[in-house]
Amino acid sequence: MRLSRCKFEGLQGFEDLDLTDLSDVTAFTGPNGSGKSTILRVLRLAFNILNKNTLCDTLPKHESWDLFTTATLHFNRLDSDPLDHPLGEHLGKLDAFVVEIACTQSQFCIRSISCTDRYIRFDGPQSTISDLQAARSNIVTSEATEQELEKRLVALNQNQQRQQDVQERQRLHSTRENTKANTSALRAELEKRLDIPVEKGTGDTSDTVHLVRDHLDEFLKLLAFPKVAYVDAGRLQVDLIPELISMLLAQKSGRHNDNEKHWTTVRKMNRLLQAEVEVSQGAEQPEMHINGAPYHQASSGTQITLSFFGLTNLSELNSIVLWDEPENGLHPTRRARLLELMFKDGRQFVVATHASEFAPVFAKSGKVFRCTAQYEPTSTVVQLRTEHVADRRDAFLTLDALGVHPARTLFTANVVIWVEGPTELLFYRHWLNPLLEAHQLVEGFHYTFMQYGGALISYLSIADDAHVESTFDLLSMCRHPVILVDSDFREDPGPSPSNALKRGALRLYQEVNGLNVGRPGSAMFDWTSGREVENYLPVNAIWHAIGILWKHFNTYAETLRSEHLSIGQYQSYEADLEAHFVKLGVVDENKSDATKPLAKGRSVWGAGNKVEMMATALTASDLRIDQLQWNCNERLRRVVDFIVSISQR
User: Fold this and answer.
1) Is pLDDT above 90 for 377?
2) Do residues 177 and 150 lie in contact, with contact meaning Cβ atoms separated by under 8 Å?
């Protein structure tokens, strides 16, 4: 069964949401805050309602923002034969039908089901399942009270006819009769609730029949609405891979037919991952290995692909899969492969995405909507809208908005950590990755690193406000930016260090503060407490790097270590290193100025080789995070706390 159209009324933010011509893969694109994820959650609520297979009940768990007053859902069935039910016989050939749902703040009711010119309508108030259960429970309680009173009357009749017994018998008899009357009233009320008037119509004619509620619920079950699979990106790998392993182990240990299924499934995984997959029962828990290594050591892209395989093998074929940002953690080539698998899978997929690879604008079995948000200056209400990508012009506009343009880049991870260049990238990745992995957060999935380049700081120092604003339009395409800059402080900045930042860095800081005004806690800006990221390195790591990179180090090691090397908090680490070499006489002659000797090995450990120096310093076996200088440990943990808080929202 396929959802072909859905219309929602009463949604916050949307005047009305009418999505037509939904396809095998339907994608919603647009900037953050334009309603993409809201649409997925609204669809989830609608299908969770239908999957209850009942006429009326309390609403499934949902956010208030996702609640609608009316939903009209259009379905196409592969099997068009009438259903074996009186209502199915009335509706006739069910190749396509429409369901209308009405919601209050606490409950839902199925209002009507129609097919071409035939319809069935359920008007009037209906009872929820919990109300009916309470009514049945009250009848059982009343019947039990009747039985208890009857036992007490029988016992009194067997006793001597004392005056007080006669009075007690009369009292119990009266109470029993009242209880019987109450039980009869409760039964009558329940029968009334269970007796549902159904309007059956064809064209302009209609009549009303009465059916028992259970019989109606059975009809809804026969319709076999698609199950909904809502992919929680944060728990995709955590939940699905262990379930997949358990299924494979059960097949492997089963009878011959199950064992054949196991090997067929493993061969499919091998082709999908281009790797050898093996599952086994370990000493403590089931295990999966990919090319001989535990699966959790595989790349995030491999794990996400494996999770997708689990999703499509564990869920029913008659399902609609709602996936928010499936691109997270995937290389573009794997994104394209994943979209191809979606088209071939047989289930219906609805995705919200920032990635062009998941916007099948030119695919026959794909549908793309562009989502926008408009903020009226005179109103506090955000107006959300969706538009069909209906032609090639719309398609190119959508791709352009998704960043498929040589002058733009699209960032899709939930958190993007912006660092200045490759040296900073090496440093922050080395320390932040293990800290975040301790919270089960994976690079490329929950967060990613990007380099903005030191030239951006210089540019923003002279750029006008419009150019600064355009820069942050680009940055706002990621949900939660973390911007880390070198402070470049030459001296103690005093009690207000932000005021001592260079103009370009200060403008970044101010723009991040502006983002946090509009979306509190959405972005972070921090600077090094020393001059540059290299100032964080302890002396042992610096000597380790020089010892590896400079082939003559052993010749001068004793001399260089004869005095303590001190790298100042606000000094250039290369300048302090050079001063140390010169002071201890480890120098070359300066042919241009004999009074200013040159430190030996400066081409290896100097400013021209900072990336290799950092990479090598971080390999020191005795390097620990608590050795980092100038409260670096504290600042790193501040970044970790921010990213963890984002992941827990």
Assistant:
1) no
2) no
What is residue 333's three-state secondary structure? helix
The 3-state secondary structure of 202-262 reads ECCEEEEEEEEHHHHHHHHHHCCCCEEEEECHHHHHHHHHHHHHHHHHHHHCCCHHHHHHH
Is 301 within a domain? Answer: yes
Whether residue 63 is contained in a domain is answered as: yes
Mean pLDDT over the full length of the chain: 84
pLDDT score of 454 = 53
Per mean pLDDT, which range of 47-51, 139-143, 309-313 is the poorest? 309-313
CB-based contact 499:456 (threshold 8 Å): no
Which of 329-333, 366-370, 391-395 holds the top average pLDDT? 366-370
Domains: count for the chain: 6
The size of the chain, in residues, is 649
Same domain, 37 and 145: no
Same domain, residue pair 181 and 248? no
Same domain, 309 and 349: no
Strand partners, 527: 485
> Which pLDDT belongs to residue 640?
96
Q: Which domain holds residue 335?
A: 21-51+318-410
State the pTM of this model.
0.59
Banded pLDDT at 409 (limits 50, 70, 90): very low
- Shared-domain flag, residues 433 and 513: yes
Q: What angle do CA 482, 484, 487 make, to 5 degrees?
A: 150
Residue 229 domain flag: no
SS3 content of the chain, % helix, strand, coil (to 5): 45, 20, 35
- Confidence band (pLDDT; 50, 70, 90) for 407? very low
Same domain, 481 and 445: yes
Residue 444 above 80 pLDDT?
A: no
d(CA 449, CA 419): 7
Q: Assess whether 502 and 547 both reside in one domain.
A: no
263, 285, 316 — which closes off a domain? 316
Q: How many CB atoms lie within 10 A of CB 234?
A: 18
Say which residue the tokens 């007080």 belong to.
164
- Residues 511-522: what's their mean pLDDT? 84
Closest-CA residue to 478 (of 448, 441, 452, 516)? 448
Residue 356 sits in the same domain as residue 372: yes
Long-range CB contacts (within 8 A, 24+) of 575-582: 577/542, 577/605, 577/606, 578/602, 578/606
